[in-house]
Structure formats: structure tokens, C-alpha cells
């Protein structure tokens, strides 16, 4: 297809400029643009009724037959053939291009499309080289009209290729087609309502106007420099051959890298930057050489980085939007730009003929500046389109609502289940808890001021005895904890931290600490980051700090997010999320977020996923291996959830939740949209840190609940107990 396009462009220019003067070029450009506008409406209706895989072979077949007919006309009237070829390529070139890329956009999800489009673009640049070589050799071996038959043969080969693709294309369901037909009627309204589509249309129109003005200047100066006929065809062939070879080198060397690293809008912005720079150079040093260099640089960029990135901008749109709007934007607004360029040329020629090149180059520079302004708005529109795609995918796949986080019954049940799981594992893995700190003798001084410490020193008997809390009757202590007033500083609050390790009273102690957290934040943070503190205490403290929505509590949780134990890091992440939801003014360092993600990536690496509970020599080796395996698997499953929790501290909550659920889903397109969203919005340092965890397109395993892990653990221990009894 691209070989036909390049060779056809050389043949078109050579045939037309051989039969007519260059002054006729703006008129035929305008006529071809009008015909393309009509064709855009026609192809949009076809694509809404049928799939691109069904329409594309028909277009190639019609083009092949038309070229043969036009060659026959050329045997009688070369001038009529020249006009017919010019209009034929003006109509069929955009139709085939938009139908082909519509097929590609429907076959791949947004993330996979980045890789696929890079490989397809390499094939296109190879075709450009072959097409330019073919036109060059034809200019020296056969007559110019014979090239038309070769062009027809190329589209015959494309027809065979598209028939093979047709059987592999995804079928479109009936309801989708009906919806497309409705959208087609209100296409103008859709453009008004959707800024993203409107910016795409403006981008196409401005880029087309710039390209058409450069094409006119290039053709004008080429016609003045070379003789008509074979010499002119020879020049155009060599020029487009050079463009194709340079395009191929750029596509192979930096094409895929640019798509992956620079982003789509950066790739597109290169085109107006080249036009502005080249236009200014052309104004400073006018002539055929600078015009040719500018035309060649614009064509190279358009054929490589711009084309690949532009087509990817459509991937997050729904199929009915693409089918109804893509052709109208690709062809309709492209031809509107061509018509505008033809009008500018006619106007400039009417004003002056001597300085027309300078005026047109100045117009090209202005159009490049306007194009850059449109490109700046495309990034935000693309991100919004990806978010809409994730939301529509979640709706179609009947995923739960993501507008508000579920933090009520389900989360409470999961917390209790995990508490039960960890307590059972602690029974299998007996550990030596830190000893109770000893208490020294306090020397009382007279004349102390007012405060809880002074009151306690003046009347020690009035101080609640910590021993009564730590070793008292369960029911009596629970009642005391529920009734305790903790809204002000009190010496007894410190004992509550130790009670988080109590097997029966830790829930009541945690509830009391949630009430006391605002006045004892420092004590809680100190216990959280103390590596000698009991693990059971440290993993429960974040839930108490979550009740204190202050920057100090958030800073303490950020320290805990680097803990050696995953359960502590996991709890700190969830607590930070609650605090930041309750207090949007909380500031969380981006550097610390990156460090926290790197911790999880390093420990997720093969061989690094250590189990959460240290092995104890008193437990038999088989039981150790079982517990290690179950808990390591749980930690691996929970790692991605923890990473997305950390990401949500820095980025928008709802899109992060949607992306996390999409990565778990089996639908390829839904996952691909989420991956493309993450690749687009994540800053480079964060993306490089998190990509080892989420970069695979395969569905990520869903995290198992604590109840399921506990059930597996209990079943396995029963089996091992029976095996042990049989051995005895």
C-alpha cells in the first residue's frame, strides 16, 4: 500500500506537470479535496454498517480496476489520464489509509497497539523505499504511462493481502452497529461535545494545510528546475527514494523507542517543530535546496513518528466513535486543510508573484505554531479518553462501581479474616516476644506544675495500674477500655500500645487507640518504627494512626512503609490512603513514593519473596515449607494492590482503582487500556519503578482472601498431622 502511495505520488506529479503548467495545480488540488470530502462521508457510512476488514478489499479492488481504466484512457488522451490519475489518488489514497488504520485500531488494545504499530510502520517505510525504487527504474526503462499498470498490480496484491486479513478480523456484534448508526447521524454534535475529537480534527486540518503549501512550493520549484517528462519523473523518484530510505532508518533506529519513551504527543509535536524550523531557515536562505530539504524533512517526520503516534490516538475510543468519526477526520478535515491551502495559494498569487514563496513559507511557519498549540491540548484529551475507556470497559464487563472506595463491611470482614489468619500462623510459628519493659523507681519532687504527669506524681494511687490492664480479667478490662476517656493526654495510654499484642483484647485496645491517636501520635509512631517492638503491635498501629488525619501521622506512616515486614507496609499504605482521603492537604513526598515502590519491586523479584513469618526450629520441616509457601504466595498477590495504593497517594484515586481492577480482568482490551493509561500518565521515574510489576499484558492473578488462605492452611496441617500419626 505504501509502495503504491510513494510510486503513485511520483507518477502523479510527473504526469500532471508534463501535460499542464504548475499554475493549474491549485485548481486540481481543490477539486481532489472536494471529491475526498464526499468520499469521507461515504466511507464513514460504509464503516458504520460493515467492518473495516470487509470494506478494505472492496476499496483495493475498485482502485485496481480504476487504474486500468485510466491507463486505457491515456492511450487516447494523456492529459485526461493525468487529471484522472491525480483525482484517483486524491480520493483512494486517504480512503485506503483510513480504512487500513481503522482495521488496526480495532484489532489491538491501546497498549499492544504501541508495539504493533511500530512493526507495521517499519513495513510501511520498507514499502516506501520499494515504491521509490520502482518509480526510479521505470523512469529509465519504460514509458511513463506504463507505471500506471504497475500501480494497478500493486493494489491487486493488496487485495489478496486484505482478503487474508478479513478472515482474522474480529466480528462486530449487532447492537454495536446499531449504536454506530445513531452516532453517525450526530457526528457534528459529537465534534462539538468532545474536545478531544475536535482537537484531532484541528490537528489534521492544520498539518494538511502545511503539507499542501510545502508540496506546492516544492512542485513549483522542481518544474522550474527540471525538464518535463522522464527527467522530472527521475527527480521525483530519487527525491521520494531518499525520503523513504531516511524514513526507514529513523523508524528502525528510534521509531519504537520514541513511542515507548517520549509519549504520543511528543512524537506528534516533532512535525510542527520541523516545519517551524525549516520555514525560518527557508525564509533566511530561500531557494530550491532549502525548500526541498524542508519538504523532505516534513515528509520523513509525517511518515514515521507522526503517523505512528497519530494513529494510536484513536485506540482508546470506542469502535462506534472510530468508525463514524475517524474517516471524517482523516479525510474530511485533511481535505479541508488542502482546500484552505489552495485558497491561500490563489490569494497570494493574486497579490504578488515575485515574493509568493516567502509569503507561503511565512504562512507555513504560522500554521506550525498553531499546530503546536493544538498538540499541547491533545495529551490531556488522550488521558481523559483512556479513563473513559477504562470506565466503559468496567461497565460493559459488569465490574463493581469504582466511584467510592469500599471501606465498610467488606473491608472490616477482610481485616478480621486476616487477623484470624495471622494468629493461626503465629500458633504454628511460636516466637519469643519482646520482654515487658521493667519499671524503675520515680523520685517525686515537690512544687510541680499542673498536668497529667504532675497529677500522677502527686497522687500515684490515682494512676490506673498498667498491670490491671495487661493482666486483668478479660471482661472487666474490655469494659474499662470501652469506657476510658482518652481525648486528653493520660499516662495510661502507653499501656494500650502493649495491649495490641493481647490475643483477646487487641480489638478493644485498637479501638481505644483510635480515640487516643490525636494526643499520642508520637508514641504510636515510635512504637511503629521500633524494630524490637512486637510484630503484632507494629502491624496494628497503622489502623490507629489512620484515625489521626494530620501531617505528622502521615509522616510517621511513611516511615513505616519501609518496614521489613510486608504486613506492616501493607497496613501503612492503607492507613495513608484513608488519611489523605480525609485530609486532601496532606503532603506526601514523591521521592518517598518511588522508594516505596522500588522496595516492593526488589522484594517481588524471583527468590526475593521471603515469607512473612520466620521459621522456627521447633516446627517440623514440612509444616515450615507449607506455611512459607502459602504466605509467600499471599504476599506476592498483595504486592500489586499495595503498589497501587501507594500510587494513589500521588495520582487520582478513581483512575488508579479502575486500572488496578482492569489489570486483574481477563479481557485483553480492558487490560491494554489500563496499561496504556499507566504508561501515559506515570512520571518516568515512577513508571520505571512500577513497570516490572505491571508491564505484562497477561492478566495478573487476583489476590486471595485471608479466609481462602486459612482454609488451605488448615487442610494442609490436618493432612500433615495424619501423616505424622501414621509414621508414629
At the first level of CATH, the class of the largest domain is Mainly Alpha
How much of the sequence lies in strands comes to: under 5%
Shape label: elongated
User: Number of DSSP strands?
Assistant: 0
| Number of domain modules | 3
CATH-defined superfamily of the largest domain: MFS general substrate transporter like domains
What number is the mean pLDDT? 77
Total helices: the number is 30
**N-to-C series of helices and strands:** HHHHHHHHHHHHHHHHHHHHHHHHHHHHHH
The biggest beta sheet is recorded as: none
> What fraction, in percent, of the residue positions are helical?
over 70%
Structural class: mainly alpha
N-to-C CA distance: 78 Å
Topology-level CATH name of the largest domain: Growth Hormone, Chain: A
Low-confidence stretches: 170-185, 401-410, 430-448, 605-623
What does this structure look like?
The protein is an all-alpha fold and 728 residues long. It folds into 3 domains: 2-396, Up-down Bundle (Growth Hormone, Chain: A); 401-428 and 589-728, no CATH class; 463-578, Leucine-rich Repeat Variant. It is built from 30 helices and no strands. α1 runs antiparallel to α4.
Amino acid at each position: 500500500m505504501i509502495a503504491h502511495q510513494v510510486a503513485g505520488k511520483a507518477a502523479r506529479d510527473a504526469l500532471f506537470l508534463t501535460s499542464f503548467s504548475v499554475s493549474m495545480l491549485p485548481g486540481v488540488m481543490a477539486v481532489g479535496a472536494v471529491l475526498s470530502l464526499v468520499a469521507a462521508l461515504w466511507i464513514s457510512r460504509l464503516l458504520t454498517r460493515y467492518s473495516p476488514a470487509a470494506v478494505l478489499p472492496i476499496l483495493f479492488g475498485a482502485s485496481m480496476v480504476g487504474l486500468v481504466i485510466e491507463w486505457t484512457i491515456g492511450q487516447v488522451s494523456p492529459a485526461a489520464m493525468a487529471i484522472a490519475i491525480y483525482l484517483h489518488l486524491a480520493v483512494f489514497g486517504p480512503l485506503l489509509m483510513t480504512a487500513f488504520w481503522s482495521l488496526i485500531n480495532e484489532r489491538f488494545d491501546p497498549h499492544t497497539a504501541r508495539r504493533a504499530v511500530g512493526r507495521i510502520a517499519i513495513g510501511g517505510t520498507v514499502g516506501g523505499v520499494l515504491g521509490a525504487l520502482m518509480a526510479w527504474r521505470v523512469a529509465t526503462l519504460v514509458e511513463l504511462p506504463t507505471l500506471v499498470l504497475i500501480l494497478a498490480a500493486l493494489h491487486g496484491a493488496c487485495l489478496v493481502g486484505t482478503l487474508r486479513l478479513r478472515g482474522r478480523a474480529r466480528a462486530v456484534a449487532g447492537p454495536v452497529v446499531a449504536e454506530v448508526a445513531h452516532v453517525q447521524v450526530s457526528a457534528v454534535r459529537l465534534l462539538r461535545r468532545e474536545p478531544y475529537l475536535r482537537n484531532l480534527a484541528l490537528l489534521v486540518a492544520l498539518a494538511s494545510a502545511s503539507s499542501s503549501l510545502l508540496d506546492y512550493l516544492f512542485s513549483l520549484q522542481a518544474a522550474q528546475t527540471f525538464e518535463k517528462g522522464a527527467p522530472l519523473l527521475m527527480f521525483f523518484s530519487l527525491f521520494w527514494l531518499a525520503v523513504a530510505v531516511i524514513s526507514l532508518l529513523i523508524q528502525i533506529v528510534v521509531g519504537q523507542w520514541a513511542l515507548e519513551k517520549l509519549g504520543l504527543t511528543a512524537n506528534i509535536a516533532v512535525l510542527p517543530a520541523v516545519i517551524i524550523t525549516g520555514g525560518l531557515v527557508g525564509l533566511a536562505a530561500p531557494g530550491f535546496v532549502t525548500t526541498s530539504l524542508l519538504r523532505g524533512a516534513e515528509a520523513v517526520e509525517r511518515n514515521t513518528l507522526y503517523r505512528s503516534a497519530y494513529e494510536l490516538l484513536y485506540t482508546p475510543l470506542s469502535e462506534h466513535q472510530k468508525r463514524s468519526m475517524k474517516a471524517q477526520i482523516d479525510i474530511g478535515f485533511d481535505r479541508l486543510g488542502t482546500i484552505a491551502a489552495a485558497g491561500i495559494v490563489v490569494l497570494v498569487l493574486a497579490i504578488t508573484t515575485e515574493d509568493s514563496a516567502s509569503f507561503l513559507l511565512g504562512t507555513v511557519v504560522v500554521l506550525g505554531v498553531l499546530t503546536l498549540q493544538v498538540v499541547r491540548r491533545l495529551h490531556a484529551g488522550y488521558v481523559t479518553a483512556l479513563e473513559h475507556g477504562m470506565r466503559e470497559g468496567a461497565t460493559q464487563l459488569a465490574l463493581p462501581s469504582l466511584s467510592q472506595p469500599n471501606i465498610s463491611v467488606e473491608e472490616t470482614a477482610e481485616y478480621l479474616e486476616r487477623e484470624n489468619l495471622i494468629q493461626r500462623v503465629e500458633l504454628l510459628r511460636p516466637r519469643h516476644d519482646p520482654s515487658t519493659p521493667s519499671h524503675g523507681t520515680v523520685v517525686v519532687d515537690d512544687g510541680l506544675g499542673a498536668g497529667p504527669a504532675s497529677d500522677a506524681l502527686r497522687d500515684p494511687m490515682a494512676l490506673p495500674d498498667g498491670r490491671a490492664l495487661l493482666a486483668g480479667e478479660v471482661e472487666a478490662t474490655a469494659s474499662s477500655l470501652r469506657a476510658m476517656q482518652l481525648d486528653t493526654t493520660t499516662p495510661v495510654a502507653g499501656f494500650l500500645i502493649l495491649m495490641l499484642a493481647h490475643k483477646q483484647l487487641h480489638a478493644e485496645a485498637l479501638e481505644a487507640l483510635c480515640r487516643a491517636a490525636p494526643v499520642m501520635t508520637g508514641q504510636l509512631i515510635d512504637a511503629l518504627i521500633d524494630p524490637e517492638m512486637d510484630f503484632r503491635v507494629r502491624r496494628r498501629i497503622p489502623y490507629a494512626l489512620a484515625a489521626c488525619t494530620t501531617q505528622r501521622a502521615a509522616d510517621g506512616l511513611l516511615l513505616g512503609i519501609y518496614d521489613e515486614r510486608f504486613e506492616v507496609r501493607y497496613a501503612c499504605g492503607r492507613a495513608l490512603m484513608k488519611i489523605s482521603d480525609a485530609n486532601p492537604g496532606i503532603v506526601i513526598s514523591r521521592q518517598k513514593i518511588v522508594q516505596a515502590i522500588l522496595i516492593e519491586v526488589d522484594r517481588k523479584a524471583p527468590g526475593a519473596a521471603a515469607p512473612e513469618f520466620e521459621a522456627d526450629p521447633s516446627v517440623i520441616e514440612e509444616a515450615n515449607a507449607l506455611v512459607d509457601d502459602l504466605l509467600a504466595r499471599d504476599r506476592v498477590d498483595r504486592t500489586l494492590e499495595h503498589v497501587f495504593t501507594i500510587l494513589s497517594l500521588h495520582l487520582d484515586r478513581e483512575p488508579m482503582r479502575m486500572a488496578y481492577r482492569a489489570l486483574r480482568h481477563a479481557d485483553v482490551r480492558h487490560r491494554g487500556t489500563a496499561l496504556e493509561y499507566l504508561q501515559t500518565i506515570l512520571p518516568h521515574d515512577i513508571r520505571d519503578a512500577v513497570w516490572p510489576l505491571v508491564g505484562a499484558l497477561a492478566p495478573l492473578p487476583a489476590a486471595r482472601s485471608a479466609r481462602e488462605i486459612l482454609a488451605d492452611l488448615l487442610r494442609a496441617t490436618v493432612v500433615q498431622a495424619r501423616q505424622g500419626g501414621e509414621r508414629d
